[in-house]
Write a structure and sequence with these properties.
heterotrimer; A mainly alpha (331); B mainly alpha (250); C alpha+beta (95); A: 331 residues; mainly alpha; two-stranded antiparallel sheet; 11 helices; 66% helix; disordered N terminus; B: 250 residues
Chain lengths: 331, 250, 95
Amino acid sequence: MYAQALNVAEKAHADDPELRARFQHRVDAEEKIEPNDWMPEGYRRTLVRQISQHAHSEIVGMLPEGNWITRAPSLKRKAALLAKVQDEGGHGLYLYSAAETLGVSREELVEQLLTGKAKYSSIFNYPTPSWADMGMIGWLVDGAAIMNQIPLCRCSYGPYARAMIRICKEESFHQRQGYEIVMTLAKGSPAQKKMAQDSLNRWWWPALMMFGPSDRDSQHSDQNMAWKIKRFSNDDLRQKFIDATVPQGHFLGLTFPDPDLRLNAVTGHWEHGPIDWSEFNRVVRGEGPCNRERLKARQKAHDEGAWVREAALAHAEKRAARKAAAKIAAE
Amino acid sequence: METPLFTYTLRLADNALVLGHRLSEWCGHGPMLEEDLALANMALDLIGQARNLYTHAGSVEGKGRSEDDLAYLRDCPDWRNILLVERPRGDFAFTILRQFLYAAFMHPYFERLAASKDETLAAIAAKAVKEMAYHVRHAGEWVIRLGDGTEESAARLREALEDLWPFTGEMFEMDSVEQALVDAGIAVDPAVIRPIWDETIAHVFGEALLTCPRDGWMQTGGRRGEHSEHLGHLLSDLQFMQRTYPGATW
Amino acid sequence: MTEKTMPLWEVFIRSRTGLSHRHCGSLHAPDAEMALQAARDVYTRRGEGLSIWVVPSSAITASDPQDKDALFEPTASKIYRHPTFYEVPEEVGHM
């Protein structure tokens, strides 16, 4: 659910202009495009990339939070966190399924992730050294993700929109779960407050970067907007997120790590200081704190699971062969 | 001095939490996405059972200890789980075979515990019996697929069975603590479970082309608080936050 | 790509007794039993289901979107299939 930041510029593609016009007409009329419908090649490719990046983000996103499942400080938190990380896995699964309707297999998609050909949201390349990070990820990262996802429920591609509806429904507990963790810390001992503040200091800017580069620097937005794969601009969504989140943080007595953050009394919006896009670009390039670690963990799980998948397939083949043999014998 | 009912409830709770914890270690690292979710579901069932049982143990004890006090503030000698569940998670063959061996025991066990004269235990068991029925089915189907899959999967499964078998005896142990509760109609006599367990194992192993090892020497001690080295490491993970920040609310 | 592909299954769930099974998504599994279990673990985590069907995706025959006009347009003019086509005086009451 963290895909919006990852759209990459799309090359113009020469398709049959008449089909293209008819396609655009359907999209404009808010009709859903379904898997076997004619679609411009660029639309298909953009969707495969966006949906699979989104799926990869869910799967890689299991790692930073999974880091705390065994150390959660109470049984209630442990169960909630496990259920939440499990949900992320489910969301990855729904999204892989949606991408597969466009003619690409799960195996191919996973290979693209593991070879580094496909990207995932950079936010998951940051580490989770403290328990407060579980709260902060739920509150900020899932909060930012929800801003992105709700409009995607109306995306023009049917299977993607349907997956997003299911995901948004299930996700509604994630952000609340996170905020509750942060709130408990903010009301707790000085050490717990410090833990929360330190975590906010680390996550605030990366969370803002999740919405992707400013619209002024994003050349591919127009086409995706016209195709209704993207429905709001990066800056609009980011602003919406800041306006919703800042009062929630102040309510807890937390300080946002941005000296320029102030409420514009005229517009009613919270204005923020400059975002360090060089950091964003660095982490996207692979120079974040955990990029290599995250991919290696995925690679390891994939490699160690290979014999299990092989065995399951081998058994299915044997069973089918036995059934066929029994049928012949019976005839 | 621990009362028999407290010790007994704690044994059930510790088994569930330690095994749930081990399963939860798979989250994000499963052999395929679908199975990642399945393992987490089983872990959540067990953690849920543990929470109910700890709460009951706390009220049986009557000293105001909460589920978290019991889970987070006891050191190894006070843990009452069987050694089987504290073994490190191993590979998928090990994890799924252990799950099968444990669930094949706990399912018929909870079925009978649902008729316990202790109403709370009966209610907890009535809920858990459905969960364990699914664990038997899911883990059992996997055991069959691994056993009758590829050469590698069969070899890994055989290896896991050799590792695990000596730890199965402890499930059937009986002591004076439990005998009194069995006589009072509160606990279940594991001897009653034995033939059912044997039959479930024989059925699945038959399809999995797996030979049941001969019953020989069996590991013991967990139920009395004599644990392997592994439990301490598990607790250092599990209890880290509560130990580092004593008395804090989370 | 050396990895063999794991078959794809379509999942249908009946949410409440009386309602028909509805398509809710897909998943990968080696065989029907594992597909059924995976559907339970993936798609009924919040008490959504009372009954599950799984169908190999390859077993589904779908209509071609290009045939849409030929398949579905002709019914548009058959308005006599709808109750509102017929006039019944109000005095007769609900029918």
